[in-house]
Design goal:
- This protein is α+β, with helices and mostly antiparallel strands and about 180 residues long.
- A hairpin with a 2-residue loop joins β2 and β3.
- It has 5 helices and 14 strands.
- A 6-stranded mixed beta sheet has the order 1-3-2-6-5-8. Strands 4-7-9-10-11-12 form a 6-stranded mixed beta sheet.
């Protein structure tokens, strides 16, 4: 996340961003331009998006990638992948307020932000039960699961053969998560 661009209200931000080509995050009146991802980053998002969407087909849950906003109390965030439940069909909405699962695919420029600050912001949402961090360069996979009110359990799944997402009852082979992604030299 870069330096803030300007101060706005949430309503001003939403009206302004509706006409912007690039995506921006918003927190406490400040607007932050989003940086573009690498092919490795995008490939992992596409792999996860297609596999999770197929798994959720026919349930009351849906998966969305990158361009769906998530609203927190004081801002708007763009997760790489978000699962929301309770509405079987997508409409014209642009904002999710009740994510069950958020996945962030890490990039060098946003890694620290996703691991610390963004997770703190997402944890303010009562609907969130799982937060996964996937680093395609290092092939690290960390999954935080809400186990008790306010208590999160971290499971490092880096060496596992499967990515386990208990919030949606899904196990994916790690080979499928990283399919088409070159290991870092």
């Amino acid at each position: 996340m870069g330096l803030p661009l300007t101060k706005k209200t949430l309503a001003e931000f939403l009206a302004w961003e509706a006409h912007e080509i690039e995506r921006h995050e918003f927190f406490r009146g400040e607007v932050f331009a989003m940086v573009g991802g690498t092919a490795r980053h995008n490939r992992v998002i596409m792999n996860l998006g297609s596999l999770i969407a197929a798994h959720l087909d026919g349930t009351g849950c849906q998966a969305f990638t990158e361009s769906m906003k998530v609203q927190i109390a004081e801002g708007i965030l763009y997760p790489d992948l978000v699962v929301t439940c309770g509405k079987a069909d997508a409409g014209d909405e642009q904002i999710v307020t009740d994510p069950k699962l958020v996945i962030e695919v890490l990039s060098p420029s946003t890694k620290g932000y996703d691991q610390r600050d963004k997770f703190i912001l997402y944890r303010s949402l009562p609907s969130l039960t799982e937060y996964a961090l996937i680093d395609p360069s290092e092939r690290r996979v960390e999954v935080f699961t809400l186990v008790d009110a306010g208590a999160w359990r971290l499971v490092d799944q880096t060496q596992a053969s499967e990515l386990s997402l208990s919030s949606i009852g899904l196990k994916l082979p790690m080979q499928a998560v990283f399919k088409g992604v070159e290991p870092t030299a």
